[in-house]
Amino acid sequence: MDKPVIILGAKGIAHPALEIFNSNQVIVYGFLDEDEKMHGSEINVVPVLGHPEDDGYLKLIGKKCEAFVAVDDNKYRQFLVQMLNEKRKVQPVNAIHERAYISTDASIGHGNFVNAQVTVGAGAKVGSHCIFHTGAIIDHTCELGDFVQIGAGSIINAGVTIKEGAFVGSGVTIVSGITIGKDARVGAGSVVIADVKDGETVFGNPAAPIKK
Q1: Catalytic annotation, pick one of 15, 39, 51, 140
Q2: How far apart are CA 118 and CA 54, in angstroms?
Q3: Could you give the C-alpha distances from 34 to 8, 48, 50, in angstroms and in order?
Q4: pLDDT tens for each residue of 20-43
């Protein structure tokens, strides 16, 4: 990557995203965050410049800088991605740790956060703007939609489908062939042996729906 990167967001995955870009010898120009208290501060000597919706900084993106959206909250993440698409006509870049493994036969979209020791197996299809925390395993022929989040150490076995916006907590095991519905949530440590419906929250071993 020839251009430096501006990271939108300065909390959550922003710091490890900086470490990922540093490990790949990519210069990070600065952070943009909605929390005004952070403006003027630094993260590992990289400044928090201003607000993510500040046109003065946004105009750099696409011409002089790339962008990466480091926001955990899916709704705000989606808003910022849409803003970059519409205002700057750009897609955020991927942040892929040098110690992650992505099969040469896997496909992966834009703007994904892939931390250390993540494995994406052969024939897997990963959408855009997903978050994969440390040590997550996405086995062969899995299909993941956009804005999916997978917690640290979770094992997504072969042939699993995870639809857009779904959240899988840390240490989860999803057995082969299962479908996780759109915007569904799987609690940490769960073992999922049956399909999860759109918008449903499940937890436990075996995972069962949580009544709202």
Answers
A1: 140
A2: 33
A3: 9, 10, 8
A4: 999 999 999 999 999 999 999 999
Helix (H) or strand (E) holding 186: strand 185-186
Half-sphere exposure of 142 (CA within 13 A, CB side): 30
Prediction pTM value: 0.95
Alpha helices per DSSP H over 25-161: 55-58, 74-83
Any catalytic annotation for residue 140?
yes
The pair of three-digit structure tokens given for residue 60, joined into one six-digit string: 């750099």
Q: What is the mean pLDDT of the chain?
A: 96
Which of 134, 69, 144, 153 minimizes the C-alpha distance to 108? 144
Q: How far is CA 186 from CA 3, 56, 189, in A?
A: 37, 40, 9
CA distance 180 to 48: 36
Tokens standing for residue 203:
């937890």
Any idea which residue has 């040469």 for tokens?
104
Q: Are 170 and 149 in contact (CB under 8 A)?
A: no
Question: Per residue in 105-160, pLDDT tens?
Answer: 999 999 999 999 999 999 999 999 999 999 999 999 999 999 999 999 999 999 99
Q: What is the DSSP letter of 128?
A: S
DSSP SS3 for 203? strand
